[in-house]
Amino acid sequence: MPRIRLEGPDDPRLSDYRGLTDTQLRRRTEPAEGLYIAEGSKVLRRAVAAGHTPRSFLLTEKWLHGLEDVLQQFPDVPAFIGDAAVLEGITGFHLHRGALAAMNRPVPARLDAVLEEARRVAVLEDIGDHTNLGAVFRSAAALGIDAVLLSPGCADPLYRRAIRVSMGGVFQVPWARLPEGPLDLGLLREFGFVIGALALTPDAVGIEEFAAERHVRLALLLGTEGNGLSDVALASADTAVRIPMYGGVDSLNVAAAAAVAFWECRERTAR
Fold first, then answer.
1. 118: left (phi > 0), else alpha (psi -120 to 50), else beta?
2. pLDDT digits over 175-231, tens only?
3. Architecture of domain 111-264
4. Phi/psi of residue 8, each to 5°?
5. Residues 155-162, mean pLDDT to the nearest whole number
6. Is residue 113 classed exposed, middle or buried when 0-12, 13-18 and 19+ CB atoms within 10 A define those classes?
7. What is the DSSP string of 57-78?
8. Looking at the domain that runs over 3-104, which CATH code has it been given?
9. Cys bridge to 153: 77, 126, 190, 252, which one at CB 3.0-4.6 A?
């Protein structure tokens, strides 16, 4: 495996790692260039375990030994090694976790393939905050969600912050993008899913009541905190569902609401 000791931050081979704090830049360049950035040893290991392949590594000396087994799996992939100051000069931020990898993006999953074996699905409409998106994926991985569907307006699950917040959950839970245009959940119905929309509408039923119906295949539809679900999304659902609140609080952050809904609507029987 090529190991390249860095003397400074100006090596032209490090272009994948420059400007990592510029969200708008990375949103444009990473998908177009077929890459994403995995940050931290745990996330990096989960990416590799999911079958994703690195194009290079960037790490400090002290992380070299702890990731030796991972590096040895890819003998032809360069590992750039430098001190913390050099890495900060390249990336624009201090690496507390000391290790990054530029990873090749996997081929996007097909909707029908993602849904084929799923029983519990989360459908996310226009969630643009990477922290919220990552937190939803972490809860999905922990609480029995089999797949996540993303509207075209959702943030990128493979953006560095979303991956980090999810603790690699974006590699554990299959996900796919819905087609461009108005939200169309027809394929979910073809696969026999009942669709529950988390919304504060007058006709919404309580989450416990909804979960007690024990639907075999269930999709939970969640929108943004500011605007909630669109009228199109609400119209596509079979039932509006609410989480009862105390203390005059009207709603939860979407990531918190997702965790409550995932737990309450989990499958109670072994597959």
1. beta
2. 999 998 878 899 999 999 999 999 989 999 999 999 999 999 999 999 987 778 999
3. 3-Layer(aba) Sandwich (3.40)
4. -165, 180
5. 95
6. exposed
7. EEE-GGGTTTTHHHHHT-TTS-
8. 3.30.1330.30
9. 126
